[in-house]
Fold each of these.
Amino acid sequence: MKLWSWLSIAEIRKRRSDLARCRTTEHNTLHFSLFLSLSLSLHLPLPLPLPLPLPLPLPLPLPLPPSLVDPRGARHLLTSQHSLPGIPVALKQTIDLRTSMDGKYKEIAEELFSRSLAERDMLSAPYEFPEDSPIEQLEERQQRLQRQISQDVKFEPDILLRAKQELMKTDSATDLEYLKEQSQAFMDLYPKEMEREGEKEYQRVSISGEEKCGVPFTDLLDAAKCVVKALFIREKYIGLSMQSFCRTTASYLEELSDRPLDMGIYEEIPETSVTADLDQTVHPPVSATHPYENQDPACMPPDIGYGCKMVNGVVHIYTKKDSMDTSTELELPYPDLSEYIADMNVMTALIINGPVKSFCYRRLQYLSSKFQMHILLNEMKELAAQKKVPHRDFYNIRKVDTHIHASSCMNQKHLLRFIKRAMKKYPGEIVHVERGKGQTLMEVFQTMNLTAFDLSVDTLDMHADRNTFHRFDKFNAKYNPIGESILREIFIKTDNHLEGKYFGHIIKEVMADLEESKYQNVELRLSIYGRQRDEWDKLAQWAVKHQVYSNNVRWLLQVPRLFDVYHTKKQLSNFQELLENIFMPLFEVTIDPTNHRELHLFLQHVVGFDSVDDESKPEHHCFNMESPLPANWTEEDNPPYAYYLYYMYANMTVLNHLRRQRGFNTLVLRPHCGEAGPIHHLVSGFMLSENISHGLLLRKAPVLQYLYYLAQIGIAMSPLSNNSLFLSYHRNPLPEYLSRGLMVSLSTDDPLQFHFTKEPLMEEYSIAAQVWKLSSCDMCELARNSVLMSGFSHKVKSYWLGPHYIKEGQEGNDIRRTNVPDIRVAYRYETMCEELNLITQAIRTDELEAITEEEGNLCMGPV
Ligand SMILES: [Zn+2]
């Protein structure tokens, strides 16, 4: 293959026009090229050419022998339960995504892992961008320059004009011609759009001129291939498990793929009736009956008589209960282990590839600078748009606390008042049984030498303080009121002598507060430990018995990664037992709801799984093909993060297919990820989960950060929690992520330990706004993100965000509900399309290049 590096500009241009002439008239799809001078131009009234995803009517070359290409599409190869060890997804694409690293993934991944074990204090890890690199300095200088220019522009309209003329001055007349052509083509294609959007016009920053991304074409191509490969990997796993994948990204991937990605089939089917009364209200209708009331077995879906058992850590379903073998096995897809490990190695090798790292780092820097310019030019317009909307402001838009644990969702003052009230109201109630002898609440406090009067927030001592920083163990101890685990058991557990009565009451008080505030919602995490088979039923009975339900609350189930602890206590003998305790009840209730009625009702309000524990605990095991299967995992050591996540994902995938078959709601994976510890947790998160909590370490890994951006993976960030545990507030990357356009939201994590006021989520927003000087538009954008990434139903979101919220770009925004100006949404959308375009065009140009070369060779001979 010929390297298309430093050709003269004229030559490139000629090539381009030749290509355009002989191939297609849609020359704006071919505008990608190598460009030399980076010039910044401010297009004022002139509408900029939007990146148009026009399909290229070209036959794409097949780099693979036909035997490797499955006519039914790549997903099928993966999904069969009886598939042979998988082939990495890259090999199944028709587009040639081979890069310079191919064939070395396993070695690179293992090398990285062993290095992360050995050199924890390395100056800069292989996936990081070295702090004192000359490139970084160069970037900084460029940014300073840009800032200077933009400041001049702001203060002096004359300068603005001149700057525009200067900067727009392209290096030749042909370039200008080309630019004009582009905008004309855009106008021809979208004249109506532009008319309609006329008033929503804003000032766009665009890069024109020769070099678009600051790296040589070969590097760009290599990086683009890697990025696309990674996105295909995510798309495969997310689609397989029925989680949701960013639509815009999917449509770009689809252009490169030989098969339709049909992401639509995995999405919730939109109810048609939603739009009827939507124009009047932002409040979803509330059902008259309590969701836990309808327990009549006659109303329950019937038993379908399937059988299920766990084989190699993954549940298999059989159509008959009595003969569970391959003849009766139901064809439900789950991921192939060897394929998963191969994909994981590809991802790991990718994040440390030098040129890819450098490319992603530059793109991220560019995104930050571009946002700065956007704000500089459009801040007033954004504010004006917000002012124009009647009634709506930051206080009455919907916000979801996307990451909060039920056992610490109340603040300490609230818990204190509750304990005092309980001591007055139920002094004689037996709350605890020790060695067969019951203890009343009064006796419990007497043994601690305390009266209700003595209690204060200080004696409760549950607030995180400077001693918890980097000490997760000390932080965990803070969950015990007055340092006594018995009080934790009595007041904040669902499974105790009182069957969680007090905890149910206190959660209902929190719910009442939320309902009163109307616009705040939470996704509470409850624990399933996996020590016993009846944990799910007990939890559901707790919820139903105490009627713990609110329209403002959805549940997530968190599974602590504590196998080693239970194993040492002899509660579990192998890892598969843990998995069985977590997943078998879910399959049983899905097959026969009448047998677990409470659980069936409760599950309708559960949106997904979370995986929790201290990520900074060292891992001694590398997950590969030699790792023991769950039934053979009998070691003292805890399995690594990736191992937990893979088996949770695999079982959830089978469960989702079964639940979809029965018409029940499906679940998603939303683990704690990237709070501390090794970077490869974020790789697992990228591949398997719909969104993550924390994501702090993305700041160190540019490739992953760029990928999280392109896939628009939700990141629920909790800067106050981080400030107490892992990263001080002023170093938190949230403002940086937000400016680059990552899908971030604000969440509280543990109000009991970190917050002081009655509205912890507002406290979180308020501190962020003050410290980082967030604008009202930024805050509303964060709130909108939180609703988008939350697990509330499609119907509810249609009321909160607008009936068309699923649509891409500003069409999906309804400022009357979200208070986010269309300008901001349009900016985000256009910027992302530009990035995706840059990458997909690089690959396409390479394809075209290959074709023209072939044709050239053919022509040469006879003529
Ligand atoms: Zn948390």
Note: The mean pLDDT is 79.
Amino acid sequence: MQILRHSEQTLKTALISKNPVLVSQYEKFEAGEQRLMNEAFQPTSDLFGPITLHSQSDWITSHPEAPQDFEQFYSDPYRNTPSAEKRSIYIQSIGALGNTRIISEEYIKWLKGYCEAFFYGLTVKLLEPVSVSATRCSFRINDNTQNLQIHAGHILKFLKKKKPEDAFCVVGITMIDLYPRDSWNFVFGQASLTDGVGIFSFARYGRDFYSSHYEGKVKKLQKKSSNDYSIFDNYYIPEITSVLLLRSCKTVTHEIGHIFGLRHCQWLACLMQGSNHLEEADRRPLNLCPICLRKLQCAVGFSIVERYKALVKWIDDDSASTPVVAPRHSREDNVNLPKPAEAFKDWREWIVKCLAILQK
Ligand SMILES: [Zn+2]
Ligand SMILES: [Zn+2]
């Protein structure tokens, strides 16, 4: 295992910068906020540690990129900032997300609530769910894994057309695997930063995708024609476990981070680290390092304390915010499923430590 350790000075400059305007902006943060962010360059910090590399296939080794410090982010003319008119993040589900309508509805509300806390100060709205056929995207059966896949670029075009006036961005989520082009095996997600749209699949986040008895395999013969979407009817959907919920919250916030213009983090262990495979994605934390936190705070303008409190509240609230009361639902539908938040326990403990530093 290799440890990517930067000097205190390097981290301090990456966070605060040497530009006098940005230094004085930093000094305007509350004392507690500065105390927390300064943990970035405390070698003994138990909140922020270095990035560890476990294999040659890890992201940083296989995809060398230029690092982005706070100043580079701040002065990037192409980054996206929510305006007073465009402060909503929209989530569009494509195809069923859970094995019943209730699970699909609750699950997307959990994700919405998480994004609302994470991007504290922005509004998160749900678009009416659509079927795969409604997007008119191309699809295929993957030759290696035999699962159904939909064309990521076609979905992005669909989302761009549907983008509401007040949208900062629209993110599509689906339980169907994605492919970006014929020659590629698969992709976890794809985004267009200029259009402010992204599509992410959680098909591979279930517990059985990589097992030999994965139930999403289809026989070639089952495919009728390239525009017969009935193949998606009752197609296999992984169970919404706590781990799947955590992985999807992690992916969506990482990817929306990119839409704000945050590049892959190379400073400290951080949500914005790149990841090349599922094991590396699992290793990456749910939290932003102070450098990335300052970038997001600069774009959104939240209070760091209030944001952390909202995240704890989301973890503690055991079900989605709004009970199902619409009369069209039958009586047995009228339930709130408990939110499977067990996997967020470590993240909660970590946030509580941050709150202690912030409010000392
Ligand atoms: Zn990324
Ligand atoms: Zn970071």
Note: The longest strand covers residues 167-174.
